Amino acid sequence: MTMHFNDETFRGDYTYHNSPEAIRRFPFPFDQDSYMYSVNIEQHPGGPKGTPFEKTFDVDEHYVSEMADREITLAEDPLRCQSLPHMELAGWDLLELIMVSKARDYPELFTLHRDGNDWHWINRPLGIEKKFTFLDPATLPCGPMEYITRQTQGDFALLHERDNNLWMDAGMITSQADWSLDFDVGMNFFEWHAPVPKARKMGVFDKALKFLLAVGQGQHYRRLNWTMTVNPRLDTSPENYHKWGPEKRTVTPENVGQKQFLRVELQTFFRLPRSNALAFPIRCYLANLEDLVSQPKWGRRLHRVLRDIDPALADYKGFAVNQKMIVEYLSQFDDGAPTSPGIFADA
Amino acid sequence: MKLALKVTEIEQLSPLVKRFRFEDPAGMALPVFSGGAHLTVEMSERTEAGEIIRRNSYSLISDPYDGGGYEIAVRREDKGRGGSLYMHTKVAEGDEITVSVPSNLFQLDLRARKHVLIGGGIGITPFLSQLKQLDMEQRPYELHYAARSRDEAAGLKLLPQAAHVHVHISEEGSRMDLGAVLDGQPLGTHVYTCGPGGLIAAVADQAARLGWPKASVHSEAFTAPPPGEPFDVVIASTGQSIHVKADQSLLEALEAARVEVEYSCRGGACGRCHTKVTACDGRILHNDHWLSDDERAAQQDIMPCMSRFKGARLELDL
Ligand code: HEM
Ligand code: FES
């Protein structure tokens, strides 16, 4: 397998685009024609060949450009990457998990040679070759979490477990749906989830935390979350709201199909061996409405979901201002026919 | 997740305690782990009723970063449910053995400026892996090991000779003085205790008296399920009645009757086996460390890995 990597941007001229193949494999998050929060957790990895669920860490055509975008965000704001001192060991655990998985799943892109703690890492798409000593921070240019997450798509939170709770004590967060690591760092599971409407009362967070605390080594899980973003922008942070917030006002009935993106987060959970910390990668996938309606099932379903969604969720997810325009656009693609079960497009 | 391993070493550490080493039969590296982790050993026994599987959890005592093998130490409990007797009398070098992947309910809090580890008797076991991790991470610590006699101090053979490892043998007149151990520790020290309930309570008490923050005081909650009087339970969904024998835990009896219940620690600490009670005419003997006092009093929840029942009827939401 050779992989093609797009040359594209996630800001400014926004040249981000999906190939037909990327659209077909898009992780469409709705398995029915309506949506409400739930403890939607399943085992990971595992899924049809070619889908983003197949490999532990999915690498796709956006890889190289996403990493370039992360570099820009970090250069402007180094606090997007933070690790409290006791989390360094978890950083090494994460580095090992990612390097071992990627070298196993994509041998033509990544290679890892290990001789005891002498490691040799080759990342061909990014042109990186590095010899270093595992668990010795002096042999890497930066901390282990930062080192590996500058080479891995998606945001990463590392959670420290204590007092029957999880604490966000480290993270690399540059492609977030309007939340801030600098604000959340050091908070526990209930504190950082406080802005979410309805879910706490529904018992979703109590059950989810209990589940996460019981996640053991070697048992990995995932869930999908979603929101809506205008323009293919990875960095929709509160810090930069002044840059992307006003863009919501640039949507018109003519351009909504191109400008309005469904933003899907593939969230995974891993118990890390040496630190007993929990790793929480949040991988972001973007597809605009035009991309999505190319799959008739998705066009129909997305129309119904966004038309009927609880107003509190539309508000929290930040698309209430454009909801009417989005639903009107999508209604052209909904002939009222029934949709098949499951998230995947019809063959 | 389960691992099929081979018993490669058995060593008598003291008259009552044996050390077991398990390795992958093909020499593959096992998952590494964190200090304080335990694993669950499966012990299969043939009885008239067919094969039954008993599962006991034991702290890992080997180097957490070494995937070459896992080691545990097992104290023979002649009055227990038979798990430790099985390990002592039925398991031989060369045997195959099924264990769980390591899991940790007693991890070090790496925010601590210093770690004080206090082990009483067989409660020394989780600290053996922790001190290896502390050495590797180059964190300051001291360990205190209290035992009645040298004969009972199985851990002596496994502890390094070092200035920060202190052994207190009460028979020899060197009883541990908790006040002296805890007083004067630098701010930001965490203390960890594993051993008899009395020791855990005494450390918590002493730490509170010295004004230590609660979050800096840790103890290993899980213990083996106690035997007790036999009783019966009813499964609400099927009406099936299941007998729990004196030397069996409720969880084991459910498993023997092929009623699925989730579990992890099998010691009342992880919460996995939490089961709702649909009818209770009698008294639940709560032996777990999971349910709150209010939940215990309400008698609408039970942790089958540890707890038992005395009374006329107990019905479970299974
Ligand atoms: C430890 C892992 C997790 C981390 C680090 C995490 C983090 C976050 C953060 C930072 C937010 C944004 C809150 C804000 O508006 O400021 C969020 C939202 C949310 N989280 Fe989590 N979360 C985790 C696990 C889970 C799990 C297991 C569930 C299961 C139900 C869950 C459900 C939600 C929901 C429903 C939202 C609202 C999302 C939306 O409507 O866009 N989270 N989470
Ligand atoms: S199995 Fe852990 S509490 Fe029962």
TrEMBL record, chain A:
Species, as recorded: Pseudodonghicola xiamenensis
Superkingdom to which the source organism belongs: Bacteria
Protein name: DUF3445 domain-containing protein
TrEMBL record, chain B:
Top-level taxon: Bacteria
Matching PROSITE patterns: 2FE2S_FER_2, FAD_FR
Protein name, as recorded: Ferredoxin--NADP(+) reductase
Gene3D superfamilies: 3.10.20.30, Nucleotide-binding domain of ferredoxin-NADP reductase (FNR) module, Translation factors
Single GO MF annotation: metal ion binding
Keywords: 2Fe-2S, Flavoprotein, Iron, Iron-sulfur, Metal-binding, Oxidoreductase
Residue span, 2Fe-2S ferredoxin-type domain: 231-318
Keyword S-adenosyl-L-methionine part of the UniProt annotation: no
Domain FAD-binding FR-type: 1-109
